[in-house]
Amino acid sequence: TDDFTDRIQRVEPSATLAISNLAAEKEAEGADIVDLSVGEPDFDTPENIVAAGTEALEAGHTGYTSSNGVPELKDAIAEKLRGDGIEASADEVIVTPGAKQALYETVQTLVEDGDEVVLLDPAWVSYEAMVKLAGGDLERIDLAPHDFQLEPALEDLAAAISDDTELLIVNSPSNPTGAVYADAALEGVRDLAVEHDVTVVSDEIYERITYGVEPTSLATLEGMADRTVTINGFSKAFSMTGWRLGYLHATEEFVSQAGKLHSHSVSCATNFVQRAGIEAFANTDEAVVEMRDAFCSRRDLLVDLFADHGVDVAVPDGAFYMMLPVAEDDQAWCEDAIEQAHVACVPGSAFNAPGYARISYAASEERLREAVDRLAENDLL
Ligand code: PLP
């Protein structure tokens, strides 16, 4: 392994891989697996978006675009952000192949060896990997004892953040918990960020999937405009995971630095996909609401089904995940769930939340019922 960099050896392969491998093995043996481990909506991309992508392809939009994105899409993104209350212009946007690339570029632009980065646990798996690749040190705040809410953990956050902190990553609605942080919590984050001169990454990729609550963009809070990198994308809102389209918004100064990495790595997001993105923003509100309502019914169903078996979950206000309290050894529980019940979910340990399993409800109500029945029959609830 001497040939490989320290940087790459610091990173573990995706923890969800073990579970999907096991699920694939079982399926190959002919088992019917209910897969609740997936991180993507189970809907087709809305037709108008597919048509716009196809038309763009046929019209010959197949060359490179300007590195930070086609002007019409950057304009549409800036307009969308202004609608959310962020004072955005097209020059402050980089269009990326997925939000993941936007996050990767952000961390590479801000974090160097020994820099301290604060994460709110349970946290999405890739934040840790990105920070480690950049050489940063992680400081972690555990929200699990607080039903995954941020406000009751603000004291812990205050104790963790110091003038040495470079970056804080906030993800609301959250993967894996589905929590949507209240304004009071975000204002607490703002106060700490301003006091200690910390940059905050606000990953808002699940923003369009919330149930009766309006998520607030951190960059709209006073004092946050110049210290927030807002991350968003098309994967979850428009069921476009495989298209790979996302973006970041930050100061022009940040964009000119991050833009170097962007142009020297991916060059640009795919041309005809960017054109489909313009259509997604323009004409898809109805489909977005339909998908959100379906997720909401499934959330309600699952919460009720678990309650019927005496299991209380923290009711999520957004995204399409919930954290199920399971055995102390959540990895073993998830293996049993696949082996015995043929239900796949992700061990909470993958998100630094041992004792839980992440359930994705991007599956039909019928399959959700089936999953809960099987878990119960195998004494796993
Ligand atoms: N951020 C969070 C919290 C996610 O859950 C995901 C996808 O699972 C992403 C970012 C990346 O999404 P994409 O790269 O598909 O835009």
TrEMBL record:
Keywords for the protein's UniProt record, in alphabetical order: Aminotransferase, Pyridoxal phosphate, Transferase
Needed co-factor(s): pyridoxal 5'-phosphate
| Leader peptide range in chain numbering | none
Stored CDD domains: AAT_like
One Pfam family this sequence matches: Aminotran_1_2
- Enzyme superclass (EC): transferase
Q: Give me any GO biological process, just one.
A: amino acid metabolic process
Residue stretches making up the Aminotransferase class I/classII large domain: 32-375
Q: Does the keyword Transferase apply?
A: yes
The GO molecular function terms of this record are: pyridoxal phosphate binding; transaminase activity
EC identifiers of the protein: 2.6.1.-
**Could you tell me which InterPro entries the record lists for this protein?**
Aminotransferase_I/II_large (IPR004839), AspAT/PAT-like (IPR050596), NHTrfase_class1_PyrdxlP-BS (IPR004838), PyrdxlP-dep_Trfase (IPR015424), PyrdxlP-dep_Trfase_major (IPR015421), PyrdxlP-dep_Trfase_small (IPR015422)
Which family is it part of?
A: Belongs to the class-I pyridoxal-phosphate-dependent aminotransferase family.
Q: What is the protein's quaternary organization?
A: Homodimer.
* Protein name per the record: Aminotransferase
Which organism is this entry from?
Halopenitus malekzadehii
